[in-house]
Amino acid sequence: MTQISNRLPSLDGWRAVSIFLVLAAHSKFVPGFPAAWKEACFWLLNGNMGVRTFFVISGFLITWLMLVERDKTGQISLKHFYIRRILRIFPVYFVFLGVVFLIQLSTPFHQGDRAWISNVTFTTGMEPPGAGNTVLTGHLWSLAVEEQFYILWPLLVVGFSLAMHRGKALVFLAVPVVVAPVFRAFVYLKMLPGDLSWIVTNYTFPTNCDSLAVGCAAAILFRDYREQLRRLLTAHPTMACLGCLLLILGPHTLLVFKLAGALTVPFNQTAHAIGAALLIMQSILLPGWGPYRWLNTRVLVWVGVLSYSLYIWQQIFCSGPATFGLPDVWWMSFPGWLVPVFVVSCASYYLLEQPFMKLRAKFRDA
């Protein structure tokens, strides 16, 4: 097998696109957002699409890096993997929770103990009734889903030698692709027993794991079938790109119109994940082609690099000044709210993320 590289173009640009979708979707709830724009945003700007793209990127990149490590060193170190994940996720995450705690002490905002427990245990999204106001931490559900994935998938890869057995790996990954739509259908049809209705929701691992699994499968296929994928995605790049976009936007359009709900509710996310994974692979193969050139510009790469901090901190500023007992202020109104979001995120990235990323580098391929 040929050596594979951990340097992949376009991924930071896709992160920038994803965080743009989240910020644009959340802008709808910020005071001062033009009412005339809301319908267009409902159509075009879907924050959940941004989060799902993050999931696909996470699955792809984590699996790719494990394959790179296996290729370079002959093994995958679970110890080093988990240390890297902790150093990447925990510092900003828990500093954010510390700030939310200070806000709770000093403003009218309050969330209950059960919500706090779910925040610190990475189980946000499955709070039982009466958990309290989660307006500042509700977005952490996506981090919870990813952390649960980070715990489970590497254990399976190492325990079953999946890095060496493509077929076995794809069988494992087919399970969430089949199971997640079933859970989404159960949630949609309210078929889950009452005592499970808060454990399995639209914001928990069982209903979102297929997006991560598709990203993982894409990384494996990209390693082993790169030339076949190159022919498929680059021989007629415009047609391939349009086909991928149809996978994403076709079910989304039906969902917006509330058509074919029995199909679009369970399978919309899976179709989006497959379309996004194919676009990501095409953009890696053709980083200088058409729109993908923009994904690799300095500005989009920089926003993509900031995306984790942007996602974490933006929730404070789009929650509405009344949450904190404040009158309308420019820095919590549209579009001014984006200024403190970027300022705080820059401080978070350069003062928190970067030092820990330097430390994290010591545990890569060690």
Topology:
Layout: H1 11-27, H2 35-44, H3 47-73, H4 78-106, H5 113-120, H6 141-159, H7 166-188, H8 205-224, H9 226-234, H10 237-256, H11 261-285, H12 292-295, H13 298-317, H14 338-360
**Fraction in helix:** 55-70%
Structural class: mainly alpha
The SSE order reads HHHHHHHHHHHHHH
Which overall shape is indicated by the principal axes computed on the Cα atoms? globular
Q: Note the total helix count.
A: 14
**C-alpha Rg (nearest Å):** 20 Å
**β-strand amount:** under 5%
What's the assembly state of these chains? Answer: single chain
Query: Kindly state the mean pLDDT as a whole number?
Result: 92
- CA-CA gap between termini: 21 Å
How does the major sheet shape up? none
The low-pLDDT segments are none
Kindly state the number of beta strands: 0
Structural summary, described in words:
By secondary structure, the chain is mainly α. The chain has 14 helices and no strands. The protein is globular. The mean pLDDT is 92.
Q: Care to give the gist of this entry?
A:
With 366 residues, this protein is mainly alpha-helical.
Keywords:
366 residues
